[in-house]
Amino acid sequence: MPDSSKEPAARARGDLDAIDMRILAELQADGRITNVELAQRVGLSAPPCLRRVRRLEEAGVLRGYHADIEPAALGFEVTFFAVVGLESQKQAVLDAFEAEATAWPEVRECHMIRGGGDFLLRLVARDTAHENELTARLTASPHVLRVQTLQTIRTGKFAAGVPVG
Questions:
Q1: Distance CA 4, CA 151 (A)
Q2: Please, what is the angle between helix 18-29 and helix 35-42, to 10°?
């Protein structure tokens, strides 16, 4: 049976008009914008603008509002990626690894991938010793066959969200 919780967002693109797209673009650029300012920018009065935002939230198109925190300001000096290969692609093994990885606070993204591994993780660490500790924990995880880590040197672009428009 398909996951009905994902259906509204999957169908939403066809249901979005130009004003919805402008609302999404504005909120993606500034999630702290007031409803009054948002309404002015998209050419609506405040009440219908708020109704549209609520509809986008209920449809799963707007998934949340987040602060973009500088990792180093909280002591996380290292960002790295880990490509994890598992010994089996049985659903129970995939689900167990995903549950373990997503429970770690240092794992900021967890993607099941095709080609070259089973999962791609983005992690943050306080320093290289912490990175090594996290890598050792990954390597020791049940059903993990291999772990390849890639430490970032710098980030030339970090754009949250998706292109809107």
A1: 38
A2: 130
| 132, two tokens | 């090594």
- Contact call for residues 60 and 4 (beta carbons, < 8 A): no
E strand intervals along 41-143 = 78-86, 107-112, 119-125
- Residue 138 and residue 146: Cα distance in Å, rounded? 9
Residues 6 or more apart in contact with residue 134 via CB below 8 angstroms = 104, 106, 123, 125
Buried b (16+ CB within 10 A) or exposed e, 29-53: eeeeeeeeebbebbebeeeebeebb
Per-position b or e across 84-121, b if 16+ CB within 10 A of its CB: bebeeeeeebbeebeebbeeeebbeebeeeeeebbbbb
The pTM (predicted TM-score) of the whole model is: 0.84
Q: Tokens standing for 17?
A: 């008009």
Taken in order of first residue, the domains within the chain and their CATH numbers are: 17-68 (1.10.10.10), 71-151 (3.30.70.920)
Edge-to-edge strands, sheet with 144-151? 107-112, 119-125, 78-86, 144-151
Write out pLDDT tens, residues 93-136: 999 999 999 999 999 999 999 998 999 999 999 999 999 999 99
